């Protein structure tokens, strides 16, 4: 066994290229995380659009009021996402920020009917998906 042939690599340059192409094909063909049932947290813009649609459903407001409300929702979302209190206090702090947001929005609603509809929209809150 003194003159053994040196072992050749079974992973040649051609094999590496084929392997890379195969991995790229698998990644391209794989379904996205949402299709696989994985939860993806919404972006700030998606959260703003969702909250605006839900909270203002059925309300008739001036465009300037809608923009101001979107600004309040944006401020709430940014504040909520930047929270770094102890884990057991996150919900308490987020709820207090939300209360400020909701009372500010109520102040912009022109009629009692709109206020009642807004209160109904708040009660119909869909729960956030669990992580």
Largest sheet: none
Q: How does the overall form come out from the CA principal axes? A: elongated
- Please, what is the average pLDDT? 78
Number of helices: 5
Low-confidence stretches: none
In percent terms, what proportion of residues is strand? under 5%
In angstroms, what separates the terminal alpha carbons?
A: 60 Å
* Number of separate domains: 2
Q: Work out the number of β strands.
A: 0
Which range best describes the helical content: under 10%, 10-25%, 25-40%, 40-55%, 55-70% or over 70%? 55-70%
Radius of gyration: 26 Å
Instruction: Please identify the structural class as seen in this structure.
Output: mainly alpha
The string of secondary-structure elements, in order, is: HHHHH
Question: What can you see in these coordinates?
Answer:
With 131 residues, this protein is an all-alpha fold. The protein has two domains: 11-40, no CATH class; 44-123. The protein is 60% helix and 0% strand. The chain has helices spanning 13-29, 44-55, 63-81, 90-108, 112-123. It is elongated. The N and C termini lie far apart (60 Å). The relative contact order is 0.10. The mean pLDDT is 78.
């Amino acid at each position: 066994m003194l003159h053994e042939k040196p072992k050749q690599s079974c992973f040649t340059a051609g094999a590496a290229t084929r392997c890379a192409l195969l991995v790229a094909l698998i990644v391209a063909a794989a379904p996205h995380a949402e299709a696989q049932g994985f939860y993806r947290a919404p972006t700030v813009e998606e959260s703003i659009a969702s909250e605006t649609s839900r909270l203002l459903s059925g309300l008739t407001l001036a465009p300037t009021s809608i923009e101001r409300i979107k600004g309040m929702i944006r401020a709430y979302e940014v504040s909520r996402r930047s929270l770094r209190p102890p884990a057991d206090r996150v919900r308490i702090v987020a709820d207090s920020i939300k209360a400020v947001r909701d009372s500010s929005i109520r102040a912009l609603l022109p009629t009692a009917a709109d206020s009642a509809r807004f209160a109904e929209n708040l009660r119909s809150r869909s729960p956030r998906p669990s992580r």
